[in-house]
Write a structure and sequence with these properties.
This protein has about 425 residues and is an alpha+beta fold. Helix 7 links the parallel strand 16 and strand 17. The model has no long low-confidence stretch (mean pLDDT about 95).
Length: about 425
């Protein structure tokens, strides 16, 4: 591999989160995604049900109902009003163009009382009596999640969603939007580099990364087209390999992303925890982790909001597949302040998998699950419906093919955050066939 191709490969890893993120922003604005209808910039798109297989977004959750807003702050500040939510968990997560989590509003961060907030663009120098959320790029996503126990709970969630208000302070100001490029969509490499160049120019990365970005300047020359194409191919393959592990601790077979979203060290605002514990100090590691996080779980929260643990294999290291049957014994309720769940996804898209009973996750709020006399919960994962009544009540359906599990722990307790809590193991049943 030539030096220029190596540089282009590193550049792919660097720019991938920006490009992939803004492509998803465009989807939400132009067409919507699954249960979330299209909504113009600076307005909310509210899902009216829990996500399912039709919601084709990487590692989407099946625990909360989404309220999404794509913000364009080039036209000036916005005011956000949120209602009181009683004892219901919710979070509004603010994500900049580079996928940095820059602020939180919600149960953990600001409480469940009604509140108002001012969201301002980079460089804003005004004053406000409201709590201020300072954006690091003009494009920001609000990823809103309202806890929901199931279909019967949807009307209550809908009422809360409809009480959320987002207003432009200057509704007549022009919006810059996301710059268009002239690259052909059929040429994946050319399109990627065109978007990376245009969008990194429009939405500047932190000044502290200027030196790193400077390494990539020669790639924009016309005579670097071959290196860009080779670097794109190598970058795609390298990122897929990097997602397989080695960058997060493994507890009881679960790769636990305690610091998978700690790559933002420069724009930590309202509701974030600005401490060294929650920052990745090494620049190259931070950039790689950012790309991995985008590939595996775009718009995931910091661990102090929610911990995401993933399993591609059982406790013995064999890949999870619908050809086998598995059990997970949860001996006692996990130490969380909100709730927990285990969700099943396909590979390699990491989408929810269609099944006969429309169950895509199982956790402490799942209707009809059955606990043992000692308070433990045994989850059965298989392709075919179990014959045993308890196993059937606690069944998480699997596909015919390989799959991935994600264990979510919302508002995790101290033993989860310090790594001392024991995760329930995924065990393959002897002589199981998955049928």
């Amino acid at each position: 591999m030539s030096t220029q191709t190596e540089t282009a490969t590193a550049a792919y890893i660097y720019y991938y989160p920006l490009v992939e993120n803004l492509r998803q922003v465009q989807r939400y604005v132009a067409t919507g995604i699954g249960s979330n209808p299209a909504a113009p910039f600076n307005s909310f798109s509210h899902a009216r049900k829990l996500a399912g297989p039709e919601d084709t977004f990487v590692t989407i959750n099946n625990d909360t109902v989404y309220s999404m807003a794509q913000l364009d702050l080039s036209g000036g500040p916005l005011r956000l009003d949120v209602p009181a939510t009683g004892d219901r968990y919710y979070v509004f997560q603010f994500v900049d163009a580079w996928t940095n989590n820059i602020a939180y509003v919600g149960t953990r961060a600001t409480g469940n009382a009604a509140g108002s907030f001012l969201i301002v663009p980079p460089g804003w120098a005004g004053e406000s009596e409201l709590p201020v959320i300072r954006a690091s790029t003009d494009i920001v996503s609000i990823v809103g999640r309202f806890a929901c126990t199931g279909p019967d709970d949807i009307p209550a969630v809908t009422a809360l969603q409809d009480a959320v208000v987002l207003d432009r302070i200057d509704p007549m100001s022009a919006l810059a939007g996301i710059p268009a490029t002239s690259a052909e969509a059929s040429d994946a490499a050319a399109l990627f580099w065109a978007e990376a160049h245009a969008w990194s120019t429009a939405f500047r990365a932190p000044e502290a990364e200027a030196g790193y970005q400077g390494l990539f300047e020669p790639l924009w020359a016309d005579d670097a087209a071959e290196a860009r194409a080779s670097g794109h191919a190598a970058g795609v393959a390298g990122l897929e390999e990097a997602t397989k592990g080695g960058h997060a601790p493994v507890f009881d077979g679960w790769t636990v992303g305690l610091h998978s979203f700690d790559y933002n060290s420069f724009a930590l605002g309202l509701g974030t925890v600005d401490e060294d514990l929650w920052k990745i100090g090494d620049e190259k590691e931070r950039i790689l982790i950012r790309a991995i996080a985008c590939r595996l779980g775009l718009w995931g929260n910091h661990a102090y909001e929610a911990v995401y643990a993933q399993a591609f294999t059982d406790i013995d290291g064999a890949p999870l597949t619908g050809e086998s049957t598995y059990e997970i014994v949860v001996p006692s309720p996990p130490p969380v302040g909100a709730f927990w769940s285990i969700t099943l996804y396909d590979i390699p898209n990491y989408y929810l998998v269609d099944n006969a009973i429309d169950r895509y996750s199982l956790g402490d709020r799942t209707a009809g699950i059955r606990y043992a006399d000692d308070g433990s919960l045994t989850i059965t994962i298989s392709r075919g419906e179990p014959s045993d009544a308890v196993a059937r009540a606690n069944w998480l359906p699997a596909p015919d093919a390989a799959f991935r599990l994600v264990f979510r722990l919302y508002m995790p307790g101290e033993t989860i955050l310090d790594g001392t809590w024991s995760y329930p193991r995924v065990r393959k049943l002897a002589d199981s066939t998955g049928a």
